[in-house]
Amino acid sequence: MSLDFINRIIKTSLILAAILFPFLAVYINTAFGVAYVLGCAWACLNLFAIKFLIVQVLTPKSKNAVLIVLFMLVKFPLIYFLGYLLVIWSYPPIYGLVWGFSSILAVSVLKVVSRQLLQHNSKPQVKVL
């Protein structure tokens, strides 16, 4: 699996949130749909930031230490403070946020299972004796 897999998970999660929002807003209530979309957007932003940080730290190219430290000092407090504000805000129901936060997990599990079932691996499977 490559880094493109993480980008596809983020895109699919956001598309899923956009598709589910009208149904959640109509059949449950609007606040639940908004909470689901905000939770999913927060989870995607967090995954994107973690991917960026891991790529910057672990790649063999020359590392920009100032950028890495600055990103860590901004990423963790800002993103997690936004998540905290989402949780303590009285408008969105907490279950909608939980659905949104965990949608990225559900999408990634379904993508891995579908790849295994459909055998879309680019490398042929070699059995070791």
List keywords for this structure.
80% helix, 129 residues, flat, mainly alpha
Q: What does this protein look like?
A:
By secondary structure, this protein is mostly helical. It has one domain (3-118). The protein contains 4 helices and no strands. It has helices spanning 3-27, 30-58, 65-88, 94-118. Helix 1 runs antiparallel to helix 2 and helix 2 packs across helix 4 (94-118). The longest helix is centred in the middle third of the chain and has 29 residues, at 30-58. The two termini are 24 Å apart. The relative contact order is 0.16.
What is the residue-averaged pLDDT? 88
Percentage of residues assigned to helices = over 70%
Q: Compute the separation of the termini in Å.
A: 24 Å
Q: Could you describe the largest sheet, including whether it forms a barrel?
A: none
Give start-end ranges of low-pLDDT stretches.
none
Strand content: under 5%
Number of strands: 0
